[in-house]
Automatic annotation (TrEMBL):
It comes from the Eukaryota. This is Uncharacterized protein. It holds the Pfam family LRR_6. InterPro entries: Leu-rich_rpt (IPR001611), LRR-containing (IPR052394), LRR_dom_sf (IPR032675). It comes from Staurois parvus.
């Protein structure tokens, strides 16, 4: 990795190379003073361990803009080192931490550092995060002015603290939020409604593969009318014909929605006509 410091390489892909924690000092040596490297892909290795801190320390003096650390067996104990790396990096814009296991007491360190970072895209899918992580997530995005894309899919966020995350959404600058397959139910709809109602930046919301059918689904659809959302995914949500009047209400007066995905639900029934009638006055360009 010493040769990397004098090279002109802009993108380095070390995907699935069986790298372990013992490789981190060498990686650190390679990127520490490199001024050309912009993308580093270390996904599908096993970097968890005491030397991971060396890599994160080197990140602070590199010019890396995109770092992929997905599938690296990282745990909660890595969060303080990740926090140090991103807090002091002036160039990092995209960070992929998906398919690790970051749930735990030190996850708050990572989220706290997010407020001082320059990150625009954060990928956290399938990190075994639960409802108890929502206050930390909320703290991370509440005062962050750079984050535009947050992917939380494949975690388990249903619970009483989900409202904290949605409350923080109203003051964030997030444009794309992925909450697909996060075990959300109808009881989450009032919190989702609160989150999108006064948010002026959110354009893409993915709620697919949840279970939002129920009496509170109407709250979510009512909030849709005042949001700025352009693309909404509600596929695989166990929605039925009884959901159609609420869907109709949501899209009838919405001036921004262009893409609506309702695939793999069960909308057959007498109220389906309500949805189709509302479609005639909507601005939707693509309906799935």
């Amino acid at each position: 990795m010493a040769a990397l410091t004098t090279s002109r390489i802009e993108e380095l892909i070390l995907y699935s190379n069986h790298l372990t924690d013992s490789s981190c000092p060498h990686l650190a040596s390679g990127i520490r003073n490199n001024q050309t490297l912009r993308t580093l892909n270390l996904s599908k290795n096993n970097l968890e361990g005491p030397h991971f801190t060396d890599l994160m320390a080197a990140l602070t003096t590199s010019r890396i803009e995109e770092l992929q650390l997905n599938n690296n067996f990282l745990t909660d104990s890595s969060c303080p080192h990740l926090a140090f790396g991103i807090r002091h990096s002036q160039t990092l814009r995209t960070l992929d931490l998906s398919y690790n296991n970051l749930e735990g007491p030190h996850f708050s360190d990572l989220m706290a550092s997010l407020t001082a970072s320059q990150i625009e895209e954060l990928q956290l899918p399938y990190n075994r995060l639960t409802d108890s992580s929502c206050p930390q997530l909320a703290s991370g995005i509440r005062n962050n002015q750079t984050l535009r894309t947050l992917n939380m899919c494949g975690n388990n966020l249903e619970g009483p603290h989900f409202r904290d995350l949605m409350a923080a959404l109203t003051t964030s600058r997030i444009e794309e939020l992925q909450l697909d397959n996060t075990h959300l139910t109808d009881s989450s709809c009032p919190h989702l409604a609160s989150g999108i109602r006064n948010n002026q930046t959110l354009r893409i919301l993915d709620l697919s593969w949840n279970n939002l059918k129920g009496p509170h689904f109407s709250d979510l659809m009512a909030a849709l009318t005042t949001s700025r959302i352009e693309k909404l995914h509600l596929n695989n949500n166990h929605l039925t014909d009884s959901s159609c009047p609420h869907l109709a209400s949501g899209i009838r007066n919405n001036q921004t929605l262009r893409i609506l995905n309702l695939s793999e639900n069960n909308l057959e029934g007498p109220h389906f006509s309500d949805l189709m009638t509302a479609l005639t006055t909507s601005r939707i360009e693509e309906l799935q």
